[in-house]
Every structure is written in C-alpha cells, then in structure tokens.
Amino acid sequence: MRCIIARFPFDLVKSDVEASMKGIKPEAVTGDSVLIGRRHYPVKQVGEVITKQNRRDFSSGEMVRALTRLGFTCRSAPAPTPDRTPATVLTPLQTASALLGTPTQP
User: Where are the domains of the chain?
Assistant: First the structure.
C-alpha cells in the first residue's frame, strides 16, 4: 500500500512491517501505540524503523493512519487522571497553612 509519511511516498506491506519489527525491543509507550505481533510499540519507534527517518520528521498521526490502513491495531494512551481522593484535596486555607508551617515558640 502506498503511504505518504513526512511528504515522502512509501510502499508498505503488513508482512514487511512485521518482519522489520521482529527482534526489536519495544520502548516504553507514552503516547500512541501499535500492536505488532504480541507487543505494543510506540508508533514513532515503528515509523523510525520502517521509514529510516528521524522521529521529528513525521507525526504520530501520520503513522497511526498508515498503520491502521495496513490492518494494525493502534490505540492512544489514555489521558492521565489526577488523584482526586478527598484526603489529597486541600482547601485554600489548608494549603496556605501547610505552606506557612507551624509557628515556633521562642
């Protein structure tokens, strides 16, 4: 399948992408990821391997579109949820008191 990535045309085949990624250790996934075999790879890592371009030259969106069209399963990293339990939520008065600290006796 013909894909345009970073303004350059590439003829990509699913089996070629799988073969290119065989033996490559996946990096930690922090953003968009793609499932190749049984491993989740960052899409930027896959793009760098199959296009031999620098990761800054293309966007993760370009790679997600291309890999999805090839039949791979891509997913976005969920947005981090802040820990909003009642014990960690302080009122403005409590926050100011914590910042000022307790008074010392002379």
Answer: 2-75
| Cα–Cα distance, 28 to 40 (Å, whole number) | 9
Amino acid (one-letter) located at 85: T
Q: Where are the beta strands (DSSP E) in the chain?
A: 2-5, 8-11, 33-36, 39-42, 73-75
Joined together, the tokens standing for residue 79 give 């947005």
Amino acid at 91: T
pLDDT value of residue 92: 86
Which residue carries 């579109």 as its tokens?
Answer: 65
Q: How far apart are CA 18 and CA 1, in angstroms?
A: 14
Amino acid at site 87: A
pLDDT at position 79 is 66
Q: What is the pTM of this model?
A: 0.69
DSSP, residue by residue, 71-86: T-EEEPPPPPPP---T
Beta strands 73-75 and 2-5 are unpaired
Q: For residue 14, give every residue at least 6 positions away whose Cβ sits within 8 Å of its Cβ, in sequence order, or none.
A: 70, 71, 72
